[in-house]
Design goal:
By secondary structure, the protein is an alpha/beta fold. It folds into four domains: about 45-180, P-loop containing nucleotide triphosphate hydrolases (Rossmann fold), CATH 3.40.50; about 185-265, Helicase, Ruva Protein, domain 3, CATH 1.10.8.60; about 280-370, Zinc Finger, Delta Prime, domain 3; about 395-470, post-AAA+ oligomerization domain-like (Orthogonal Bundle), CATH 1.10.3710. The protein has helices spanning about 5-10, 30-35, 55-60, 80-90, 105-125, 140-145, 145-150, 165, 170-175, 185-200, 210-220, 225-240, 260-265, 280-295, 295-310, 315-330, 335-350, 355-370, 375-385, 450-455, 460-470; strands spanning about 70-75, 95-100, 125-130, 155-160, 175-180, 205-210, 255-260, 400-405, 410-415. The strands form three sheets. It has a five-stranded parallel β-sheet with strand order 2-3-4-1-5. A two-stranded parallel ribbon has the order 6-7. The longest helix is centred in the N-terminal third of the chain and has 18 residues, at about 105-125. The radius of gyration is 29 Å and the shape is flat. It starts with a helix and ends with a helix. Mean pLDDT is about 80; it is low at about 1-15, about 275-280 and about 400-415.
Length: about 475
């Protein structure tokens, strides 16, 4: 079992020394002490932890007749990846080994495999290898894990914040179950903070938390439980320092209130006044989107500033700008999406406070661009037809076929059907043939608008429709 659990258990021992000779707190950070010890303590992730789910069976030690399966856990920071790995390790007396891909190499992986083989052969005990930041491992390093995972020499629990489809080699991904975690809700983070206040492992009732201070900490956490507890601990430290001289350290008998000013100072941010019910959070986000749609640059920048000062995750804001660039602008100014996507990637790499400048540029572009929701309406109409059951078989000429190019001309080298017309063999690279299923020949989804760049496409759109459909 890991040193982390040993340290956490020691925190429950009333005889364990919690301060050094100078009175400084020597315990692990609050976020470490409050790590859930049982599945019932985990906040959020209800879907992946539902009864009978693969992850729950793995945690409970009931991997099934085929035995436990390795897992790759993908999710944002502070959503429980490390916690779930520790819970897997505690099931059925497994041995737990933790490596970080930031510092570990192939040599370390092989040493774990050798030790796992000895434990299995001598003691009949399984080894759980928790590999944090696995996306930082090179292809060769990930390949070194394959024999141990393939033979179930170790149960690999790997954590990553990056999309495994791009960061994990296919052989390792195919031998593991993929578990996707989501950011915690505000209610989940609030429960985590409340537990940190009252639990004996945490602040043990030595502090109370003002409602506006709690709201600020929850909002600043941004769905990250670890961040919420870290900020709570920092705010408690600020409150203690502000305590009147001579009163001593706070305790359950003489608690210290953590006020909004303490929380603000702890996270070095000014609290923007949101309403108590939290509806203002959604109101401001909605106003931000509608201001870009309405082309009001000043209003959009105002709501951007309010969200940033309220501690909104800049990545959340960037995603809203990308969506707006397609939903509200699209072909009226195709460069708006390019700006928005570039801004989203730049924000992820740079972070605050400089990210505010990048977001502002993308917001200004969205506001000033001509607007068209033609693409948005078109995909909505197409989806409506599919959901209504429309869409017969794919026309025979369009069904799977391979083509090769030889001697400078197109040839139908492989597959059927022979009546497929290769567009590049036709004048203007447009072939008159049936593309839609038989029951959708009357489909009429996309209607360009006379705005911006899209207005220049209307004539070509009309010509294409006539040419493609033989009119």
């Amino acid at each position: 079992m890991s040193d982390l659990f040993a340290a956490a258990r020691a925190d429950r021992d009333p005889d364990d020394a919690r301060t050094d000779s100078d009175g400084a707190d020597t315990r692990p950070p609050l976020a470490v002490r409050m790590r859930p010890r049982a599945i019932e303590e985990v906040r959020g992730q209800r879907d992946v932890l539902r009864a009978g789910s693969p992850l729950r069976r793995l945690i409970e030690g009931s991997g099934g007749a085929a035995g436990p399966v390795s897992a790759i856990i993908w999710g944002p920071p502070g959503t429980g990846k490390t916690t779930l790995a520790h819970l897997v390790a505690t099931a059925a007396g497994r041995r737990f080994v933790e490596l970080s891909a930031v510092t570990a190499g192939v040599k370390d992986v092989r040493a774990v495999m050798d030790a796992a083989a000895r434990d299995r052969d001598l003691y009949g005990r399984q080894t759980v290898l928790f590999l944090d930041e696995i996306h930082r491992f090179s292809k060769a390093q990930q390949d070194a894990l394959l024999p141990g995972v393939e033979n179930r020499l170790v149960i690999l629990v790997a954590a990553t914040t990056e999309n495994p489809s791009f960061s994990i080699v296919a052989p390792l991904l195919s031998r593991s179950m993929l578990i996707t975690l989501t950011s915690l809700t505000d209610d989940d983070v609030g429960e985590v903070i409340d537990s940190g206040l009252t639990d004996e492992r945490g602040l043990a009732g030595a502090y109370t938390l003002a409602a506006d201070a709690r709201e600020h900490l929850v909002r600043m956490a941004g769905g990250d439980a670890r961040r919420g507890l870290t900020q709570l601990e920092a705010a408690a430290g600020v409150a203690t320092d502000a305590r009147a001289a001579g009163r001593g350290l706070p305790s359950a008998d003489d608690p210290q209130e953590i006020e909004l000013a303490h929380a603000e100072q702890a996270v070095a941010q000014a609290a923007v006044r949101y309403d108590r019910a939290g509806g203002q959070h959604y109101d401001v986000a909605s106003a931000f989107i509608k201001s870009m749609r309405g082309s009001d640059v000043d209003a959009a920048l105002h709501y951007l500033a309010r969200m940033l000062e309220a501690g909104e995750d800049p990545r959340f804001i960037a995603r809203r700008i990308v969506i707006s660039a397609s939903e509200e602008i699209a072909m009226a100014d195709p460069t708006a999406l390019q700006t928005a996507v570039a801004a989203m990637h730049a924000v992820a790499q740079i972070g605050m406070p400089e990210a505010r400048i990048i977001l502002a540029q993308a917001v200004v572009h969205n506001c000033l661009a001509p607007k068209s929701n033609a693409a948005y309406l078109a995909i909505g109409s197409a989806i409506a037809d599919v959901r209504a059951g429309r869409g017969a078989a794919v026309p025979p000429p369009l069904r799977g076929t391979a083509r090769s190019r030889a001697a400078g001309s197109a040839t139908r080298a492989v597959g059927k059907p022979e009546d497929y017309v290769y567009a590049h063999d036709e004048p203007d690279s447009v072939a008159t043939q049936q593309y839609l299923p038989d029951d959708l020949l009357d489909a009429d989804y996309y209607h360009p608008k006379e705005r911006g760049f899209e207005a220049r496409m209307i004539e070509r759109w009309a010509w294409l429709r006539g040419r493609l459909r033989g009119r």
